[in-house]
Amino acid sequence: MSGNGFGTLFRFTTFGESHGPAIGCVVDGVPPRIPLSEADLQPWLDKRRPGQSRHTTQRQEADQVKILSGVFEGKTTGTPIGLLIENTDQRSKDYGEIAEQFRPGHADVTYWGKYGIRDYRGGGRSSARETAMRVAAGGVARAVLNALVPGGVVIRAAMTQLGDLAIDRAAWDWDQVNANPFFCPDATSVARWEDRLNAIRKDGSSIGGVVEVVAENVPLGLGAPVYDKLDADIAKALMSINAVKGVEIGDGFDAATLTGEQNADEMEIDEQGNLRFLSNHAGGILGGISSGQPIIARMAVKPTSSILTPRRSVDIHGKMVDVRTKGRHDPCVGIRAVPVAEAMMAVTLADHLLRHRAQCG
Amino acid sequence: MSGNGFGTLFRFTTFGESHGPAIGCVVDGVPPRIPLSEADLQPWLDKRRPGQSRHTTQRQEADQVKILSGVFEGKTTGTPIGLLIENTDQRSKDYGEIAEQFRPGHADVTYWGKYGIRDYRGGGRSSARETAMRVAAGGVARAVLNALVPGGVVIRAAMTQLGDLAIDRAAWDWDQVNANPFFCPDATSVARWEDRLNAIRKDGSSIGGVVEVVAENVPLGLGAPVYDKLDADIAKALMSINAVKGVEIGDGFDAATLTGEQNADEMEIDEQGNLRFLSNHAGGILGGISSGQPIIARMAVKPTSSILTPRRSVDIHGKMVDVRTKGRHDPCVGIRAVPVAEAMMAVTLADHLLRHRAQCG
Amino acid sequence: MSGNGFGTLFRFTTFGESHGPAIGCVVDGVPPRIPLSEADLQPWLDKRRPGQSRHTTQRQEADQVKILSGVFEGKTTGTPIGLLIENTDQRSKDYGEIAEQFRPGHADVTYWGKYGIRDYRGGGRSSARETAMRVAAGGVARAVLNALVPGGVVIRAAMTQLGDLAIDRAAWDWDQVNANPFFCPDATSVARWEDRLNAIRKDGSSIGGVVEVVAENVPLGLGAPVYDKLDADIAKALMSINAVKGVEIGDGFDAATLTGEQNADEMEIDEQGNLRFLSNHAGGILGGISSGQPIIARMAVKPTSSILTPRRSVDIHGKMVDVRTKGRHDPCVGIRAVPVAEAMMAVTLADHLLRHRAQCG
Amino acid sequence: MSGNGFGTLFRFTTFGESHGPAIGCVVDGVPPRIPLSEADLQPWLDKRRPGQSRHTTQRQEADQVKILSGVFEGKTTGTPIGLLIENTDQRSKDYGEIAEQFRPGHADVTYWGKYGIRDYRGGGRSSARETAMRVAAGGVARAVLNALVPGGVVIRAAMTQLGDLAIDRAAWDWDQVNANPFFCPDATSVARWEDRLNAIRKDGSSIGGVVEVVAENVPLGLGAPVYDKLDADIAKALMSINAVKGVEIGDGFDAATLTGEQNADEMEIDEQGNLRFLSNHAGGILGGISSGQPIIARMAVKPTSSILTPRRSVDIHGKMVDVRTKGRHDPCVGIRAVPVAEAMMAVTLADHLLRHRAQCG
């Protein structure tokens, strides 16, 4: 209720600052007897971990997650799961200027204005470091979904646009996503993206991007209309990720340009006697409830605000200053947002799966 | 918690189906001693009311809101405000086919799949009729904002796109919004929109649109990071509106194409010694907290799913059918979503204003 | 979250003042396809209704409950159930003195101090009239419990003490409860209670009492440790009823005087191979989770604060006054609290039943 | 929402089992700029720590609390406060029998029945060890109350009854509470209590008790009627403590025996022109809202279920067994519940202070 937790029944609450001793979270509401170990969570954290290519920040964080509670003899017990990651790469340095200046595009000025105090070291609480715990909680959510949904739920994300360079959707290949440092599903775009990002990094600049996340094999019926529609909660989940400025479900903003005839997803009964949709403009959600089709969401990520070019700003004393952000930053934070988007989709679906089970059995 | 309420401290919960005896809501958490009467709520309901031009559904609903509690001698008492609107235009008719068929694009199939039962009359709970209570609750929220924020908060929305016809943003004039039946802020677009909509209506078709909502004079500091960021809650609020498929804050999806230099909103100290931003790509929110700039959000509304052209579908018996939706429908539901978008912005801001006051005094 | 709702998944929110046009509530989270009609709710309201004997207030309220939504063709649809009771017996009168005076033992002084405004007519929101909606919501909860728990859940309450006159527990007979105007389960106590209450009423005085509520056939497993223990939520539920000052589970305060040997409820396997407890000191709850034994709770109800004898007090102007409460009041509010206690037990169990189903399937 | 957190705005969520690597919690919603360090929390933990006299369990737990986040340069930042206590006294031992047997009076049987899995080591999640985190969170709540309420809020608890040995209330002296190992406020009772407890311990038995907690200087106005009444939330808070079976506010169950004349707390205006109550039967709460008088609550604690005398029970295989609980146990858990009661009062008041500030400014 106080802003640092997400979910109603599958609910996790995170804590920790970028440069404090540790970050952590509590995942509450996990069903019992679900197989879970640190080995189930670590791969997702490794995927998000910085420093894996020259296209992400060169900070080195081991991001070793520890399970402190809630798991006994390899299975969840139904009690809260405490997760902890110690911060190991806290470079000791002089924060002199940054401590008093508001970096444009960052949360410095609003945290200061809201709280009158601010842990300025590495962005403090507003650092993307917090997203590591989302990914850890997302790992728990995946375990829940896979245990409760026959056949498991497949949640995958990819970058579909780097700056203005959009992929060729016809060339989409999920196997490509982990074969390049951009989580790009279109092999033909990789070289262009690499050139663009090299130029951006060389300039000390940054660039935005678009991430698409798809959840397959989601059962029909998830979502609690009217205000906790599944798409409303996905929108909140994705918009809560650092630097995200837009969220779409299915055709998203393109749907505004369609006619009713174009937009309607027709239905038929297939050979096996099952309901089949002939298209998926809706992105798998109708009236706030999952339809059984793949759930498709997209999010727009703004460019990293930390850039080398000086920008006009002010400091806490009300003086005008020029701010130039040195340090190790992602030229495109959208890249590392890919596993975070997957995680937020996973926790949202796990929560609604339990909510649906509560009401409808 | 069960899906039909919105907000944490300023919280409203709605009930009611399209063709039941009444719809209503409870608004809880309203501060005491705020002037409020039915006359403060009715104008917003009138703005949303159908049948006001030939471009919206010809259903006639008086939508007279009654305050049943929580107001004493013209002021709120701090106790819950019960609001009720009786449904007066419930045409008695044979629902025969519609009762058993799933209209493509509608929530028929998912309600049926989720609940195994469905009030099919007029869309039941999934009808846009529910949004009348959002607008009523939004009226209460406006009263709260105006009482607690010096100078009041101005919340206005407009349609910025009808199908693929976007307005000329340079011609934006708020005074135009209520001067045409489309809530269009650009006088030069009105004629084109009218032609388009006449054609759409004549074809028994429908079209989508984009709505932009702007909140001015919002104090710096609203928003509860990390998961209840102000933009995350606005995204949820807007995405929960019927037919919305996308939400943007500030530059939204365009931000993905910018560089860090372009996107950064620089700051300076103005002549009065106050902080001033030189641009507003962020849409008034940084790190999930309002910055004092205007808050700008947009939402994409899909075309009305009720169209005259037959579409392929199935019925509750698993048989394939052709569905053709007769009746009185909005050719562009985006139009009537304009006051709803304002209302959802208002309730979100009122909630976060109280949350901010709780934590930060 | 704002104080006028109860429950997490089975959640109801009430509104309305004693002398406003109506009171009502929204029950959200009800599972679909559960048979429900006004006829299922009315008997519980009738049981609570005043004016049925000379031992309760002579106010006449028909308390006819209307279902406004959420039920279709005799069954719940999974959407929120709106309930409304119109206030019919609002005697028009001069509230002159009462409007400005704080009645000792009443919430007048604290409402005024908290809100700075107060609907003084008949106690406004703090009137026991609000409990009618608890009883209505409790009726919905009973329907849920009976539909989901094989064999149904039996929830019954009785008065076990009137002032210092305790029943003879050995004479407990549930059939007696509805055979006397005190919900007294011990036929041998009725005459004594009647004498006492006649004397109290003649004096214009009032007296307290104790109510015991028992829930049978509650499945093992309900309760969400650690903070939402089933007994913790029952304690909150009962303590939230007007005039309640104490709550016990099982042996309650007597447990403080026992040794571990006396208190331990031993277990065995019965002839059918089922777990059987040999005693029930725990009141059916261990570690916050129902054990399958009957759940037993008690609550202490203070004497009605409205009495004829003048009491020293102050008014809103800070002047000292003598207050004497005329009007139609219950000499023992404990009596009419009996069906309210049942209702609060029912809603708490229904909520935890859904919560358990969510987490444990 | 999932049971392991408490509070709406000042909200803490705990995790950890008795014999896991650590226990911890997240305190969310703390106002910014409040002085806080580990030194503010440790004394309360030390007060609760076992092994301080021969009257409590001889387990040795250092209970050193670490603040992992949310505090910067000695002050809270408004971000979540992560707290961690490593478990140091986890005796490695064979849990053979206990692993499969249900100890009477313990949560073994209900955890097993609810979850189908159970961390049996030292009681797992149902161990009173969890209360250490309540005490730590209570320390944060005290800091909040002292920072926001002029003059600070004084919260103190004492044991008022050991078994059937009640204190002489006329001899109440708060200074005595920390001068004996029983938190007994009546010096004349200490010797008798010591004799009784020595006998109990010698027998390997246990005994219950009653704890009273008093909060002074609580401002008028805290509490959110109707369902989140201050007394309702205190009742939940105290009833959620391990082994508590009853809760009273003010006169509690004695109020049931009073007449309206006896129970009414009369009011006057004192020499300074302030409202003064002439008695406090209500325990400082009227209509669910604090009245400015001391808040008085009591809780009944059952005897420790772990005793040496064999008790009849069953095991997870459905076989009947005799259970005899060896190990280091508190002969009267009521003693160590004293600082826990204080903590739960503190967190409840801190939460309602913020809630009141939100609604009423």
UniProtKB/TrEMBL annotation, chains A, B, C, D:
<protein>
    <recommendedName>
        <fullName>Chorismate synthase</fullName>
        <ecNumber>4.2.3.5</ecNumber>
    </recommendedName>
</protein>
<dbReference type="GO" id="GO:0009423">
    <property type="term" value="P:chorismate biosynthetic process"/>
</dbReference>
<feature type="binding site">
    <location>
        <position position="48"/>
    </location>
    <ligand>
        <name>NADP(+)</name>
    </ligand>
</feature>
<dbReference type="Pfam" id="PF01264">
    <property type="entry name" value="Chorismate_synt"/>
</dbReference>
<feature type="binding site">
    <location>
        <begin position="242"/>
        <end position="243"/>
    </location>
    <ligand>
        <name>FMN</name>
    </ligand>
</feature>
<dbReference type="GO" id="GO:0008652">
    <property type="term" value="P:amino acid biosynthetic process"/>
</dbReference>
<comment type="subunit">
    <text>Homotetramer.</text>
</comment>
<dbReference type="InterPro" id="IPR000453">
    <property type="entry name" value="Chorismate_synth"/>
</dbReference>
<feature type="binding site">
    <location>
        <position position="287"/>
    </location>
    <ligand>
        <name>FMN</name>
    </ligand>
</feature>
<feature type="binding site">
    <location>
        <position position="328"/>
    </location>
    <ligand>
        <name>FMN</name>
    </ligand>
</feature>
<dbReference type="GO" id="GO:0009073">
    <property type="term" value="P:aromatic amino acid family biosynthetic process"/>
</dbReference>
<feature type="binding site">
    <location>
        <begin position="302"/>
        <end position="306"/>
    </location>
    <ligand>
        <name>FMN</name>
    </ligand>
</feature>
<dbReference type="InterPro" id="IPR035904">
    <property type="entry name" value="Chorismate_synth_AroC_sf"/>
</dbReference>
<keyword id="KW-0028">Amino-acid biosynthesis</keyword>
<keyword id="KW-0521">NADP</keyword>
<feature type="binding site">
    <location>
        <begin position="125"/>
        <end position="127"/>
    </location>
    <ligand>
        <name>FMN</name>
    </ligand>
</feature>
<keyword id="KW-0274">FAD</keyword>
<comment type="function">
    <text>This reaction introduces a second double bond into the aromatic ring system.</text>
</comment>
<dbReference type="GO" id="GO:0004107">
    <property type="term" value="F:chorismate synthase activity"/>
</dbReference>
<keyword id="KW-0288">FMN</keyword>
<keyword id="KW-0057">Aromatic amino acid biosynthesis</keyword>
<keyword id="KW-0456">Lyase</keyword>
<feature type="binding site">
    <location>
        <position position="54"/>
    </location>
    <ligand>
        <name>NADP(+)</name>
    </ligand>
</feature>
<dbReference type="InterPro" id="IPR020541">
    <property type="entry name" value="Chorismate_synthase_CS"/>
</dbReference>
<dbReference type="GO" id="GO:0010181">
    <property type="term" value="F:FMN binding"/>
</dbReference>
<comment type="pathway">
    <text>Metabolic intermediate biosynthesis; chorismate biosynthesis; chorismate from D-erythrose 4-phosphate and phosphoenolpyruvate: step 7/7.</text>
</comment>
<comment type="similarity">
    <text>Belongs to the chorismate synthase family.</text>
</comment>
<dbReference type="GO" id="GO:0005829">
    <property type="term" value="C:cytosol"/>
</dbReference>
<keyword id="KW-0285">Flavoprotein</keyword>
<feature type="region of interest" description="Disordered">
    <location>
        <begin position="37"/>
        <end position="62"/>
    </location>
</feature>
